[in-house]
Structure formats: structure tokens, C-alpha cells
Amino acid sequence: MDNFTLNKYEMKRDIINFSKKISVGCDKPKSKFIMDMIYGISKSKDILLSSIAEALDENVKKAYTIDRLSDNISNDLSCSIDENYCNLAMDTLGENPIFLIDGSDIIKPLGENLKI
Fold it and tell me: Residues near 53 by Cβ (< 8 Å), separated by ≥ 6?
């Protein structure tokens, strides 16, 4: 029998560790916002703020959580999240990564033979 509660906490711990790695250099509110958004999106499987706020399951009104998230979305995340994420991805991929792209999956809306 699987222990789903344990799996949930392992997933949350992995998300927290990932968000800490990409939010190095950010202040605490921005780091918490990043962690909340990543966890909320992954738990709710949706990008609506109401779904994310419900997934966070905080002890405040859902409207307050939505307001907090929307306030942070409108603020510029000027810390080095992009650079940290790229560095983390390159560390994971190794020194000489190879990317294979299948061009047959690309849909060109103006191509007569490629329209859906």
C-alpha cells in the first residue's frame, strides 16, 4: 500500500528546495511568492489564482490569498531568477548538452499542407 501523504510531503519538499535554488538573491517575500506559485500550480494543475489560492490551503480567507498573489504578480521580480534557473538547468544537463528537435510536430498556420 502506498503512503500518499508521504508522497505529498516529498513533492512539497522538492518544490521548496527547487524554489530556494532559483530564488537565491531575492528577498524573503519574493522567495515565498515563487514557492507558493510553483507549489500552487503543481497542486491545482491550473494557473488561475483562485485555484492556486485554494491549493495553498492557507488559514486566511481565499480572497486575501488571491490579493497577495496578484499584488506580487504585478510587482517586478527583478532578482536573478532567470539566471539561477538557467544555471540550474545547465548543471543538470551537463557540460555538452544535445537537444533534438522534431520539426514534424511544428504547425505552420500559413502552410497549406500543415493546417489542422
Answer: 40, 62, 65, 66, 69
What are the respective helix, strand and coil percentages of the chain, to the nearest 5?
65, 0, 35
Report the number of distinct structural domains present in the chain.
Answer: 1
* Residues 69/37, Cβ–Cβ less than 8 Å: yes
Rounded to two decimals, the pTM is 0.72
Dihedral (CA of 37, 23, 59, 7) sign? positive
Yes or no: say if 44 and 55 are a contact pair by the CB < 8 Å rule.
yes
Structural domain of 61: 4-114
pLDDT band at 97 (very low <50, low <70, confident <90, very high): confident
The Cα–Cα gap between 78 and 76 comes to 5
